[in-house]
Design goal:
The complex is a heterodimer of chains A (about 1150) and B (about 475). Helix content of chain A is about 10%, strand content about 45%. Chain A has a 22-stranded antiparallel β-barrel. In chain A, strands 1-4-7-6-2 form a five-stranded mixed sheet, with helices on one face. Classes of the chains: A mainly beta (about 1150), B mainly alpha (about 475). At the A-B interface, strand 30, strand 31, strand 32, strand 33 and strand 37 of A face helix 1, strand 1, helix 2, helix 3 and helix 5 of B.
Amino acid sequence: MYKKLFERPACAPGFSTLSMHADQMDSSITVVPILIKIMKFSLLQILVIALAVQFSWSSPATAQLTEKRISIEFTDQKLESVLKSIAGKAQFRLVYSNQINNNTALISGHYSNTRIRDILDRLLYTNQLMYEVINDQFVIIKAQLKTKNGVNPTETGEEDVLREKTDGFTVSGVVTDENNAALPGVSIRVKNGTQLVTSNARGRYTIGVSAAGSTLQFNYVGYKTYEQTVNGDTDVNVQMKPDPAKLDEVVIIGYGTTTRRTSTGSQAGISAKDLEKQPVTNVLQALQGQLPGVQVTQTNGLPGAGIAVQIRGANSLGKSNRPLYIIDGVPFLSEPINTSSTTTAVLPSAEGFTAGTSPMNSINPGDIENIEILKDADATAIYGSRGANGVVLITTKRGQVGKTKFNLNMSTGVSEVSRFADLMKTDQYLALRKKAFSNITTNPATPNATNAPDLVLWDQQAYTDWQRLLLGNTAKTHDVTANVSGGEGRTSFYISGTYHKEGNVYPGEQGYQRGGLNANINHISLNQRFALSLSTMYSTDKNTISTTDLGNYAYNLPPNYPLYNLNGDGKLYWVSGLNNPYGFLNQTNDNRSSNLLGSLNLKYTILKGLDIRSTFGYNKADMKQVTIRPLNSLNPNGSVRSSGTAAYAYTYANNYIVEPQITYDSELWRGKISLLAGGTYQSKQSQQPYYTTASNFTSDDFLSNVNQATESSTSSSSSYYKYTSLFGRINYNVENKYIVNLNFRRDGSSRFGPNKKFGNFGSAGAAWVFSEEKFLKNKISFFSFGKLRSSYGVAGSDDIGDYQYLAAFAASAAAVYNGSASLVPTRIANSDFKWESTKKFEVALELGFLNDRLSLTSSYYNNRSSNQLISYPLSTQTGFSGFQSNLPATVQNSGAEFSLSSVNIKSKYLTWNTSFNISKNSNKLISFPDIEKTSYYTTYQVGKPISANYAYQYIGIDPATNFPAFTDFNGVGGTAAPTGGFAELGRGDRYYAGTLFPSFMGGITNSFTYKGFNLDFTFQFVKQKGRSLARSTFYPPGYMYNVATNVINDYLSQGSEDYLVTAGLTGTNGRTAYFAFSNWAASDANIVDASFIRMKNVSLSYVLPGNWLKAIHVDKVRIFTQGQNLFTVTGFKGIDPESQGVVTPPLRTIIAGLQLTL
Amino acid sequence: MLRILNKVIFGFILISITTLYSCEKTVEIAAPLNEITTPLVFSSDKLAAGALAGVYTGIAQANTQSNDLTIYSSLLADDLNYLGVNPSLVEVGSNGYTALSTFQNSIFSDWYSIIYRANLVIEGLQKYEGTSAKVKKQYTAEAKVIRAYCYFNLVNTFGDVPLIKETDVTVTGLLPRETTANIYRQIIEDLTAGKTDLAADYSGSSNTRLGVNKFVATALLARTYLFLGDYQAAESNASEVIASALYRLIPAENMETGVWVKNNPESIWQMSSPLNIANQYTIEASTLLFGLPGNSQYDIRSSFVSLFEQTDLRRQKWMREYRVGTLVRTLPYKYKYPTNAEAVAANVAEAPTVLRLAEQYLIRAEARARIGTNLDGARSDMNQIRIRARATVSTTASASGLIQEILLENRRELFCEQAFRWNNLKRTGEADAVLTVLKPGFRPIAKLLPIPQANIDANPNLIQTEGY
């Protein structure tokens, strides 16, 4: 057999952590990641490139190595020892067979500044030997061939005529996938050897083998490792078989990679393959129903709407519970750009009703290769203070070495509101209004032009279905994405461009547009010790959607409300108390934002197993907003105006990050140890150079020109954020059976006051792959994989505003008093608040059956967050309504997650896969010492969830008063006038009526492939309680607002219209009737089931058969149609059980498109 | 070439690792552009003037100026009727508020927000070095007078309220309500300090009447003593103001706008325009006159309008009639310019007035009438006001008759200003009788507004006013 000599200490065969594993692993498992389509990349993508380099046979004459000149002198030494000396001096690796040992002759020589080629030629030729140089690093010594070999196995055609058949030969062949299509990027290595090559674009490979009987290993992510012993065959064609369990797929984790098989942490992810089936604008929407423990809620159906992502429940009482987003290793500015500065001056944007403008909108879903959600302590503690709410790791697409590919994806589609509330028609509405005015028991009054224009002035027959008019339009969507990727040798690239345009369901031309460019390049040095990867992503979007959600107006505008003046002058009609929705449509809102994300990853291998690397990231996001409200769009019944108003704002944020790291991998006893140490330095600056509001323009024609405003006020603001960390990880893996993983991180953040800036975080995780144990391995035929893992650790959160510790004044814009610009205190400063920390525990069982065709993961977790960072509510007697502080409160989220994926059918033409997930989280405030002495005594109860329905208990109509009655828990105020405090504490009549959090949720996806057809569909399900439409209806029946018929019917069926219907607060019972309704609406009578099952997504595609296309040089043509939110099964009587309330609900979208690959 | 590149990169990475080890320094950040740290603010006279200006702008805010005092109190009392449909204003106008009402939130928080700013100025001037002794003394006194003014309004709106004299929230956040008597004690202490320490002219406020001086403190003392029933002190303080050469009543021929323009000699303390110092109009006008001619939300009660003689200039010049169909309605027309453009066009700069000399005459008149030893003086003081308004001169001789006349004169002169009518109704004990007749839902507890529920929620030591 061959021996390996490492004469030169600093040369590693690969240079990454993973390739070291690959080298040292003895089993059939391999984790070598190779450049392919569906695998996952990371900030370690360099390693991919390192291994993707195609090895090529080089003739001695052309190799650079052999051109090197050395000086050497030797006397009476064996050939073996002389060659070792040369290898040492010239820094190459020597590979030779035993037969060289047979050469015992002693030789002497003296070479001064001589080319290695000449020395080797001289020494070897005389000994009937020859050599070969591979990849400029390896010199293989072998016996000379006696005869010429006519076969030319190499791509280069540089056949070595002296090659010997029996001892050192090349093997070549073609690797194909299960469909007999060429599989590029497969890594092929000689088992126990050092050589490694990858298959080219046509699946072809060539590898040098030093002896017959060697075993070749073929690895490809998503496919089972294939082994083939070669006994002198020069042609070995291999068909790879898919590995359904993907156990050995490379999975990105914080600052590294792992595999599903050996990971100790909890994470779930989706890949480009799943993403491309969903016609979403914001990639986060695609996560809905897909991953256990991940709750994605869309706040409304407008393009670019805010999306709230919550991983394993809400940990914080006071903060956003927003996960940390990392894109290609760089933390992404995930907070809304226009609210990130210290100022409260924020122009509204269409997206920002509740969740804020999501910068994630600027990422083209088509550029994303993979999204991984990290959940437990083991996976998130490496992100220390920012990992408490989970981490979303996003990896963008990379180029592949090989044929240059052009890929074009075009689609177009339509979106619409799929559900409306059933509202009163004009006759029913007017009858109720008349009843209200004639009701002698509530407020008898005469309708007049002021109190009842709907009865007196407006057309009594007119009817407008406001929901259809305002929200019932069809929004068109167009999407084009093109990318070019490829590469050669040690360099690869990927460039993509995208354009996305989306209309709105409102009348008019409002819309959302996005354009983007994404480019990356990867390179590795010739000696494979240095690698770099540079990626830049730029996108810009423009959103002209109204700043006001018309959903509310569509709901409550009286059905006979006239849009235009009754005198026919064509002007919008206004009346006190109501806003004309077309006014909002006349307001122009122009939000333009751009986002530049650049990252550079460098890596250098110092010694075998010892790498240093650094990530440099830059992220700039900006947003320019212009809101123009012409006079004809403003309700004149509000203030005196001579012109319209306008507001202009610009906000930007710059974010830099440097993360140097050092990793060391080595064998230790019977296992492998991997060490990581690193640091972070991050600096972010946000500025709002101007925020200007202007009014009193000389004319409405000048609204976009602030100079023409006689009244304007401008403010500017800024904030800084700095963040620094040291972190480390120790991972020890014994025979892929016992794995221990320890993380540590020390973080410092500028968000905390002096002496409170630093915090320590860490975790310990362990996994036991019991299916590797002898007593199980290959013993039970249907059982293929079993792993038990657990972790415990602490992660934190600093997701609070900047400067909360700083006592300061702000200059208020125009307020000058007596010659001095007025300075106003900005906050109550607190220099004592410290890190919030979340202790996370998890235990999980992962099982695989039937060769992993069926795999199950079930986990239980318990997370406890303490030192709650909150804006502590204060009575305004202090001058402020709150200040930043810690609470001793502890919030617990515990729950279970279960996911299953199975390959139900797998035959030549038909495959059927199913994946299913379900998760249950229960949230509880488990302790809060001295809560009765705090302002939270009226907000939270120990032992109850932090988001709960505290409601009056409705007990029916009191026959004595004819108004709703409620249980008088505390004996104060009687049953007609419930009081607001908690019944459980004896302070009021609101009792705990259940949580607002879902009791469970999940999704099921089925995927069918038949020949070129693919059909995918996902159902999302959520079991939850919600608030009925009555909770969004602020006025009792009889007021000048429309109401859903079911709310009216529910309410009026309780008692007598004579009492319940009212038109105002005055009169006999006007006030009583008004409060009766609002109390009833806030009672448990209106906590209803809001569970739903939604057909979240359907995707049908067809790939045209390849042989049609070859003639026209097209690789692939795929046509597809996709649907989002096609239908919803729910008992919820409101507009939408997900968004609830009366906002524009999530839209039903159907698109069709074409994908073309050249 | 590659080797050189490697070395460069290697060095680069090493440098980036070593930069991390400078610890605390790495997470220090500069203050935001738009903020100045508190120690710096109180390190110079100039910046401290900004902090004081912040206290004044607090009072000048649109909300504080209009809703918190004039509009709400005029509706709460019997000056104004609200015609619109805003449920909160309907509630205010009918005195139908409950513990759950929210309109009073801003009244409570606005005054306390100004108190916080004033306390911060008082503390900051003491705590930090850098301001001159003169500024320390003057600004502290100004802040105290403003604080007293805020408490006067709070105590007359809510009754017992927490007494906040410092900025440490760990103390102030949990303070319970303090008795009205103690609040008044603090008001008098602060005003007395202001009277002692402030200049007897307007030099401290660049000779404009936008700043607080000795006579502002004195005039407020007169008002406070009147409310407390200390008529001797009220009389003497009012006399000091009246005796000052700085002030005189605007004559009848100029009273239409003369009483409301900036820096007029009748005014003792005025606010600057809320939004911008350059503005020449008032929020009162823009709120009350809004919607004219056909769509105004307000109407002066006809029972009140009928209390004026036809010749009374206040009826003619300070009220404005408008017609809605066949209905005739009346609006307050003291401040005349609802927009800046209109004020600029008329070349008039109006400024909201907190204190003016007419009130001092009426305070002294009432004090003298109640003391009973100088009824002629009392009548004479009241007649000053009547004469100016071209109303019939009083010849009433009895003290009780005079008191009634003076109170009526007070109502006619000071309608829809500050919270005079609402406060006087309560001070004189007439509120229940008067308002029960006018407003069917009126309950005695309505004389005090409920403490906002949000504050009770946030401070477990706050107890709701009895009856709510």
